């Protein structure tokens, strides 16, 4: 299906380590995909085509873009190893978390396990439903799940006392720790608990399949590793779990045959049509065609490149970056075990270098990175190459090397 039939400029094929599809990207090395990905030329073309179609045709364009979203559902299913019917399209990760949190049939006093260190999107909704339904929250430390840590043992201790759900991110946003989802899922299911996964720091760059039964729900947004833009995402619901959900979050497009009353014939307006017993009941109302057109194209690129190939490519870049930053005196959070690695590398600057000063100096040098809660975070993707890494290391040497010789930025004051 081609929603916009007008020809557009031919674009080169996406290739690992090739920045050709990002000609307007200003930073010398864009290593910040864990925060937001810049849209590639094909993604920008898709957004422009959708906007042009609506400008030319108004509502007549809506049907074609609804069809494109069904194609997107198929592409996401291929990316995840899922069935298309088990995927609902949502505007962002938070919407997916909220949908499950409010639609589960809670009983007063049930326990939910949350992790300290998680991004708040996978904490706040559970806190709110705990307050609403009288649930008990149990807290564990995310970093305890690194290999050799006590996380799994502590989790099993909590599970023995009875737990309804465990909320966990596939990859921790601060340190890049790749969580042992299979081990967590096996423990939880053995004890009758469900697992909700925030996948936004994994899907699109870290191999992750939902068909192995390790977890029950997965939500992600499109603007990070999926390489789309803001305003689109998805929620996967295990087919074994959908029947138990109560559609407390539903609206007019959640019904079966919701558009029937808008077609010719009349006398079809009803309010008793059943809510769909599929994951797409979370698709509540009119959806952002531009954002989903972007995601449709971005996921197509990821499928062409292959997530395992993307992951291997990024690991080669991070191997060099990690080695270079350690040599400059940084303390790295990257796991020694490759099974625990994601596409994020987080470090602490050497003693005597303030994090904010290091980030500003790197930013001034054209190195895009981030500073989540005390870490200096680098996150390359498929278009980055070793030259980006060497640019980052050269800029870091100018900052950290001066500090090691006794100059450079001063330490940040404590107690502020």
Topology:
Blueprint: E1 29-30, H1 41-57, H2 62-80, E2 87-90, H3 93-103, E3 111-116, H4 124-133, E4 136-141, H5 151-159, E5 165-169, H6 181-190, E6 194-198, E7 217-221, E8 233-237, H7 289-305, H8 307-327, E9 331-332, E10 345-348, H9 355-364, E11 367-368, E12 376-378, H10 386-404
Parallel strand pairs: 1-11, 3-4, 3-5, 5-6, 6-7
Antiparallel strand pairs: 2-8, 7-8, 9-10, 10-12
Helix pairs in contact: 1-7, 2-7, 5-6, 8-10
- Integer average pLDDT: 93
Cα(first) to Cα(last) distance is: 56 Å
Classify the secondary structure makeup into a structural class.
alpha/beta
Helix content: 25-40%
Query: Which fold name fills CATH's third level, the topology of the largest domain?
Result: Aspartate Aminotransferase, domain 2
Instruction: Give me the Rg, rounded.
Output: 23 Å
Main β-sheet, spatial strand arrangement: 2-8-7-6-5-3-4
Instruction: Estimate nothing, just give the exact number of structural domains.
Output: 2
Content of β-strand: 5-15%
CATH architecture of the largest domain: 3-Layer(aba) Sandwich
Order of helices and strands: EHHEHEHEHEHEEEHHEEHEEH
Strand elements, count: 12
Account of the 3D structure:
With 416 residues, the chain is α/β, with parallel strands linked by helices. It folds into two domains: 239 residues, Type I PLP-dependent aspartate aminotransferase-like (Major domain) (Aspartate Aminotransferase, domain 2, 3-Layer(aba) Sandwich); 98 residues, Aspartate Aminotransferase, domain 1 (Alpha-Beta Complex). Helix content is 34%, strand content 12%. It is built from ten helices and twelve strands. The strands form three sheets. It has a seven-stranded mixed sheet, with helices on both faces. The chain has a three-stranded antiparallel sheet with strand order 9-10-12. 45% of the residues are buried. The C terminus is likely disordered.
């Amino acid at each position: 299906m081609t929603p916009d039939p007008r020809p557009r400029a031919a674009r080169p094929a996406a290739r690992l380590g090739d920045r050709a599809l990002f000609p307007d990207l200003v930073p010398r090395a864009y290593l910040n995909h864990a925060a937001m990905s810049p849209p590639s030329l094909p993604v920008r073309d898709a957004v422009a085509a959708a906007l042009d179609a609506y400008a030319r045709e108004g509502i007549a364009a809506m049907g074609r873009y609804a069809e494109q979203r069904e194609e997107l559902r198929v592409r996401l299913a291929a990316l995840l190893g899922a069935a298309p019917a088990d995927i609902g399209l949502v505007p962002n990760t938070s919407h997916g978390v909220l949908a499950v949190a409010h639609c589960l049939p809670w009983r007063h006093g049930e326990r939910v396990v949350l992790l300290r260190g998680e991004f708040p999107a996978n904490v706040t909704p559970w806190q709110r439903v705990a307050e609403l339904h009288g649930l008990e929250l149990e807290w564990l430390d995310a970093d305890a799940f690194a290999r050799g840590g006590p996380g799994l043992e502590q989790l099993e201790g909590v599970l023995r006392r009875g737990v309804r759900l465990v909320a966990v991110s596939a990859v921790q946003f601060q340190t890049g720790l790749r969580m042992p989802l299979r081990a967590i899922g096996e423990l939880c299911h053995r004890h009758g608990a469900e697992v909700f996964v925030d996948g936004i720091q994994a899907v699109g760059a870290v191999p992750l399949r939902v068909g192995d039964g390790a977890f029950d729900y997965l939500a992600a947004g499109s603007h990070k590793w999926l390489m789309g833009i803001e305003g689109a995402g998805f929620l996967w619901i295990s087919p074994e779990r959908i029947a138990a959900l109560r559609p407390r979050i539903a609206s007019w497009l959640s019904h079966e045959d919701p558009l029937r009353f808008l077609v010719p014939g009349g006398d079809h307006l009803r309010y008793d049509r059943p809510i769909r017993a599929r994951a797409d009941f979370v698709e509540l109302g009119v959806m952002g065609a531009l954002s989903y057109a972007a995601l449709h194209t971005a996921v197509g690129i990821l499928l062409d490149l292959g997530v395992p190939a993307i992951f291997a490519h990024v690991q080669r870049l991070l191997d060099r970056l990690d080695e270079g930053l350690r040599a400059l005196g940084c303390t790295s959070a990257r796991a020694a075990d490759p099974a625990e690695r994601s596409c994020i590398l987080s470090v602490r600057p050497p003693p005597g270098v303030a994090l904010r000063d290091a980030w500003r100096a790197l930013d001034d040098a054209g190195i895009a990175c981030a500073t989540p809660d005390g870490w200096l975070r680098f996150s390359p993707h498929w278009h980055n190459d070793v030259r980006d890494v060497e640019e980052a290391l050269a800029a870091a040497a100018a900052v950290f090397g001066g500090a090691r010789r006794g100059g450079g930025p001063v330490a940040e004051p404590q107690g502020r």
